[in-house]
Amino acid sequence: MGAEADIRWGIVGPGRIAAKVMPDFAYVPNAVCVAAASRSLDRAQAFVDEFGLERAYGSYGELIAAPDIDALYIATPHPQHHKLAVAALQAGKAVLVEKTFTATVAGAEDIIATARACDVFAMEAMWTRFQPAIIAARSLIEDGAIGEVRQVQADLGVDRPYDESDRLFDPAQGGGALLDLGVYVVSFAQYFLGEPDRIEVTGSLAPTGVDWEIGLLLGYADGRAATLLGSLRHHTPGAARIFGTKGWIEVPPRFHHPDRIVLHRKGADPEQIIRPPDGVGYSHELAEATQCLRAGRTESSVMPLSDTLAVQRILNEASERLGVFHREDDSIEV
């Protein structure tokens, strides 16, 4: 794809998250969103009218087949990601897939294998990694500001009233704390510590059988560790800390889209580093995907597919330890 070309985007699943993402396209050079698809044409048309897009589709397959669309942002419930992403990749469409990437490890592996076989770009939409404040933290760590990273703490909880009809409590839609909130704390820990050697998990289940609250301990052979909390049952601050041998970095609430960090060096006063995002903060992951496509890259170096798979393994192992077994929804029509 020529460097001069704009990347034309389509939205698969014009729901709540997609509506939050849409305004951030204005901050992304060479990216233009032109279409949306839903299983309901009326719903797709309402989204198109709200955001001034060119056209609406009443099926996902029509958008996937559209010849003038370069990339798709997939924002349907987790279990639908697998079939939609594979179909898009096979049609030559790049995909930015909402987190959690899939409902299962096998689903994630299949998307990754398809992307590589088709030589088409795929990335998990983990916006946290692209926040300027998190990039600043990573740079400080790489420069040795806090020495060797040894421990990570992170929490993310919301007080979600129990409703068995709510997607978050519906097993068929990939409900539960781990896939919706745990993905943030696990991905954060994996980014700074890598893939763990062992996992310990505790938690509780909602009446529908999905995980309601979770506590994770990720252990590493050399003694490093991450302690992670997530809940749909009660609020938590949504903070994170990265501890090293020469200091630590605080990521204030809400850590998954922060506008600042605080650097604590041994023997020095705390240093606040302010790095607000452009727009709400989704702009940075959109920019990464757009830039990769314009440069002819099929994978992001910041959010590589190997990291996505590592996180998916942790999420599914933890879920299954609690007795929650997720399934892909491959009945969806494409």
UniProtKB/TrEMBL annotation:
Residues 7-120 form the Gfo/Idh/MocA-like oxidoreductase N-terminal domain. Keywords: Oxidoreductase. Pfam families: GFO_IDH_MocA, GFO_IDH_MocA_C3. GO terms for molecular function: nucleotide binding; oxidoreductase activity. SUPFAM superfamilies: Glyceraldehyde-3-phosphate dehydrogenase-like, C-terminal domain, NAD(P)-binding Rossmann-fold domains. It comes from the Bacteria. InterPro entries: Gfo/Idh/MocA-like_OxRdtase_N, Gfo/Idh/MocA_domain, GFO_IDH_MocA-like_dom, NAD(P)-bd_dom_sf. Residues 136-250 form the GFO/IDH/MocA-like oxidoreductase domain. Gene3D superfamilies: Dihydrodipicolinate Reductase, domain 2, NAD(P)-binding Rossmann-like Domain. Belongs to the Gfo/Idh/MocA family. This is Putative oxidoreductase. It comes from Microlunatus phosphovorus (strain ATCC 700054 / DSM 10555 / JCM 9379 / NBRC 101784 / NCIMB 13414 / VKM Ac-1990 / NM-1).
